[in-house]
Structures are given as C-alpha cells and as structure tokens.
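INFO batch 0412 | record 1 of 1 | parsing
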Amino acid sequence: QVQLVESGGGLVQAGGSLRLSCAASGRTFSRAMGWFRQAPGKAREPVAAINYSGSSTYYADSVKGRFTISRDNAKSTVVLQMNSLKPEDTAVYYCAARSVGGLSIRIVDYGYWGQGTQVTVSS
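INFO prediction complete | emitting tokens
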C-alpha cells in the first residue's frame, strides 16, 4: 500500500507561483508518479508525470514551460513547481502513484491517489 499526501495549494493571483508537494509513505519504491487536476464540471486530466528515476517526464501542452515536476526518491517526495499561473489552472490537484516505474499519463494506470489540494488562481 502507498499513502499520498499533497500540500502547497492555495489562492494566488494570476502570474504568481505555487509549489505543490506530494509525500509518499508505505511501499514507495520503483513507482512512477503523476500530477492530475480536475476543475469544476470537467474531467480529471493529466498535468505532469515522471518515471521512477526522474529521467523521463511528461507535461500537458497547457502547462509546458510553466510547470516543472521533480522527485526526491530519498525523501519519497514529488514536487510540482507551478509558475506564471493562469485562472484556467484553477482546479483540485491530485498526486498519484503507479505500481511500476514507467511513465504514464493514463488515469487508469495509477492505483494510488492523494486526497487532492485546491489551487485557485484569481484574475
């Protein structure tokens, strides 16, 4: 079992930055990780993902150049640095873990999810 706890969400003005952290506990080794978000009335979508070693990453087109995903396996944490935030980035952000180390952007490939953290960007 893996437990995931997100932190770092909040309210920020457009153009600002937030840093989301995901702390993993339990059987955390060799897992790819991802960040997903869900805005009101919309489907959950992938934002960024990273393989176990950190050598491969994925970003949604809407966040490329603004968001950075990174991980510290020694500390079992994954971070999503979000810069130049826009009102359309407003959503609940979820951290998720796979059972294997390979990167994926498919929601169904992630078996473990955090409780989510709210990000609100005001215009």
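INFO post-check: The radius of gyration is 13 Å.
INFO record closed
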